[in-house]
Amino acid sequence: MEDPCLWWHRDVASTAGLNVVPIPVDERGARSDLLASTDAGAAVVTPAHQFPLGALMKPERRAAAIAWAQAFDGLLIEDDYDAELRYDRPPVGALQALDPEHVAFVGTVSKTLAPGLRLGWLLLPRWLLEPIFELRRKEDVHVSALEQITFTELLLSGAFERHIRRMRSRYRTRRDRLIAMLEARAPNVTPVGISAGLRVLLELPAGSPSAEEIADRAAQYSIELFPVARCYHSGKAARDGLVVGYAALPEHAFESGLAALGDLLEATLRTSA
Ligand SMILES: Cc1ncc(COP(=O)(O)O)c(C=O)c1O
Q: Considering only CA atoms, which residue is closest to atom 6 of ligand 1?
């Protein structure tokens, strides 16, 4: 698993009895060139938008991931969790297209519609189809038919595409407003990663209170922030920071939400100066 990554994916793997091996991530994406030096049989990666660092996996890292899978008969699990939401570039090609027999591609409607729907899709290598069907039969048969039929209707009618276009423009504007607010009120905080998705990592300046302290204090401003250290296998971040979501607030509350975040950062970073 990437280090850092979504912590509950790590928990899912270890709860299943798997030995979790961390693979470092830098600004070029996961260090897939290091996979060959591990004894991993599968690797979970977020090549289109690394979570939580926001990097896009560069071509040489994509090639190294595929080369590892082919040489060691490994399985790449491609978590493409927010593919539709790109603000400064067209959607990025999937790793899966490079070698469909070694990549399991995973997507959901959690970012585009709602996580509560629990609707998603898998593009699987042929050899994995039957084992996955078997597992689904034993676990819960299938996802609710009503939601699937409704989603199909949204897709076929073009309504989903229109919704995505609207959301892309709304979230892009929100991200731009957040970045502008930071430049004005907390210029020593550094937003990291490509312009995409629903959240951004804010790296804290040297000498700042810890992300945990700021997240605790955020509660007084009715803001929920989460420290990036929780995503690291060791629990300690290479550079301390906070992940901020900008999508969930209703439009009428966004400006006051931004102002509250500005107040919090100004107050906290001023105290530290
Ligand atoms: C990195 C990453 N992958 C996948 C998901 C998808 O989660 P879900 O199970 O809701 O689709 C999320 C949701 O937050 C995520 O952050």
A: 81
